[in-house]
Here is the input.
Amino acid sequence: MDTDALTPGLLQELRRTRPYPALSLTMPTHRKAPENAQDAVRLRNLVAEAGSRLEADPRVSRETAAAVKAQLERAAEEVDQRRALDALVIFADAGEYQIWQLPRTAPERVVLSDSYLTRNLVSAKARSQHFWVLGFSAEHATLFSGTNDGLHAEKKGGFPLTAPHEAPNPQREERIGDTPSTYTSEDTRNFLRSVDAKLRGILSTDPRPLFLVGLAPALSLLDDVGESASTAVGRIAKGTTADTSPAELLKELSPALDDWRQQAAAGIRGRLDNAKSSHSFAGGLDEVWTAVREGRAGLVTAEEHFEQTARITDGHLELVGPDVTPGTDGQVREDVVDELVEAALDNGCEVAFVADDSLAGHGRVAAVLRF
Here is the structure.
């Protein structure tokens, strides 16, 4: 699975308390050859390490250790290196396993606990800038999920939809817009009402910024018959067909996506500036960590590729060098930024990622405080 699948409900299920041990395996991976040749070897080594840890743990019976190892080995055999992104996460217990491919690196580690380690998934999803794209006409509606890595068509919530009637020449109509009566017919109005209802269902369970792509009359009619269009952050007046590829659609979307990202970044900068003026600003890992733990942070921002290893001492963070690892010091966190992001989201904070070096004067991470 990838981060698109990480809904609030699934995250809650992953975090629930399980019979010990719930095993989490994470490791960095590579997208392309020749670097990805090492991934299979590293995975085998981590699986062997996990097996040794299970066998040596006095809290784990021989039968349970064997069951968890079997699930982990099945997962390792199923991993498709051709689909590798920047990190692999495997969850396994005595009865199941899950495989996650993440577009953000994760440290190499094996964790035995009474719940799965989800912070890498949560942080990767938060950084991915997920959005929805609806490509539609009087004849079809296709929903695409988008991230920084591209688009892919979704088959969920009733999508894709096809109108129950047939047009004489849909390819010509959709590409040149030669349908003056199509968007005034009751059949089309009913079809777009159905599209709107299904889209509202998607947005209610997985809210994301929405982009609409369709001919001008289609965009106008969706406004008239429904509610979902009013939430769109971008509209592209361009005809699409049921066969429009994600690559074609992304090309049309690029200017609108760039504008959306620039506006979002400007909005974050403005909120941070206002927070400084009103003395409701925190900067640096330790200050932001403390504010999040105390429930005072309303917005947490971090540079896109900021990573830091730190030791937790009396509730505060002490930065350490790369030579210090959890294996040598149990209070050390290799992925403390991801842990901070997860804690912020758990506490109802908004989380945003900004360009590298844009927070260089504030320790690479900053927060707007509620109080």
